[in-house]
Amino acid sequence: MVSLTFYGGANEIGGNKILLEDKDARIYLDFGESFDFGEDYFYEYLQPRAAHGLEVYFEFGLVPKVPRLYSKKMLERTELKYEKPDIDAIFISHSHSDHVNHISFLDESIPVYMGHGTHRILEAYHKLYPQFVDIGEHTSLNFFKSGDKIKIKHLVIEPIHVEHSIPGAYGFIVHTSKGPLIYTGDLRLHGPKSNMTQEFMEKAAKAKPYAMLCEGTRMGSEQEHNFTEAEVEKTIEGIVKKSKGVVFVYFSMSNIDRFMSVYHAALKNKRKLVIDTKFAFVLDSLKDKIPALPDVMTDENLLVYFRLSKSGTYDEKDYYVYERKFMPKMITFEHVAKNQKKFVMHMSFNKLMELVYLQPKNADYIYSSSEHFLEGEENEAERTVLENWMKHFGVKFHKAHCSGHASKQDLAHLVKVINPKILIPIHTQRAEDFKGLHTNVKIPEKEKTIEI
């Protein structure tokens, strides 16, 4: 009997923690953190103490109290007695926090499998933000690539690359005693590497699966037009072309497709792209994994912005060791301020203070990330601050974004092509809507088991 237990990812977007059991084999598909993790109990400086392990998380039911799973250190201050783990492996689909963030809680002896690119991204972000990104210690950390076949007891797990808003994303074909089971991970079909998702779909369909765990982030979206990455690039290019000043753009540093769109838009308008030292470090860390990326150190169209610090002289001692590598590509606020029409500049919310030094004139700001920030009461205070900055400096605000997830129409196409006998919607708040796509839909519930 094959069973699936949903410790996360059921009737919610993100937080995937799905236990697959088949005979004596037990593996988890992802081990992530929910998007709303802890927001009912923690706020700003009111946060759990790392030294207390899982004590506070168990208190509020934020992490499932599962025996034989967590490390001895994490359980020290809890009522859950440490026992030798009975999990054979954890498979991580990609590096977004809602799929990976809680593997630091796991017993270090449990084997963890992830893509080469996923590990590289996590390493880079841990270097930059150790307080937010930490995968913990693992005595068996294994890396895979598309097409590998990994045997865990009698199970065979086949990772296949998919396109998402971050490099190194995978779906899985899990060959169980009952037949193939498909796990989509997070994917889309409207970006520059949609052929990877197409390949995944073809292989999944060929396997003739009896069940599919299908992400449905955008199942409830009523968006009339599914914007593509190519359209985003064209929109940004048009804004840059019309701008009479510096163009600021915000997007996630890990969204390499968006970086390339902004990079191409800058080049087509004969402008240079300015990134900060953190962004330069991320790109430099990934350049051998993604050959299409420009080399920060040699590309004349890329410059690295150094903030004014300590001595006020841009001395190398003012900066972290990792930043010093990029000093030959340095550009400062003085140069940008004097030549504003020559640049497109990556500008995150927490870097807005640089506008005081840059004193932008006739500038534009393109918000090119998740629409979630621009909606909802929980973001109202931060959104108001951003609006105030734009108004104060007379910066024109624009939006240009496309999702990292498949549209409702593409999800229907995905289900039709792969055609599993059983469809299980995950990573969605609209699981019931999948009943319009398939005749045999099983709706998962949190911490409940589905036997197949």
Helix content: 25-40%
- Summarize the main sheet: 7 strands, mixed
Evaluate the radius of gyration: 23 Å
Query: Which structural class is indicated by helix and strand composition?
Result: alpha/beta
CATH class of the largest domain, named Alpha Beta
Unreliable stretches (pLDDT < 50, length at least 5) are: none
Mean pLDDT level: 95
Question: What is the domain total for the residues?
Answer: 2
Structure in a nutshell:
The chain has 452 residues and is of the alpha/beta class. It is built from 13 helices and 20 strands.
Please explain how this structure is put together.
The chain is an alpha/beta fold. The chain has 2 domains: 2-221 and 404-451, Metallo-beta-lactamase, Chain A (4-Layer Sandwich); 229-399, Metallo-hydrolase/oxidoreductase (Rossmann fold, 3-Layer(aba) Sandwich), CATH 3.40.50. Helix content is 26%, strand content 21%. The chain contains 13 helices and 20 strands. The strands form 3 sheets. The protein has a 7-stranded mixed beta sheet with strand order 6-5-4-3-2-1-20. A 7-stranded parallel beta sheet has the order 15-14-13-16-12-17-18. Strands 7-8-9-10-11-19 form a 6-stranded mixed beta sheet. Helix 9 links the parallel strand 14 (302-305) and strand 15. Helix 4 packs antiparallel against helix 8 and helix 6 runs parallel beside helix 7. The longest helix has 14 residues, at 229-242. The termini are close together. The model has no long low-confidence stretch (mean pLDDT 95).
Question: Which descriptors would you attach to this protein?
Answer:
26% helix; Metallo-beta-lactamase, Chain A; alpha/beta; 452 residues; single chain; 2 domains; 7-stranded parallel sheet
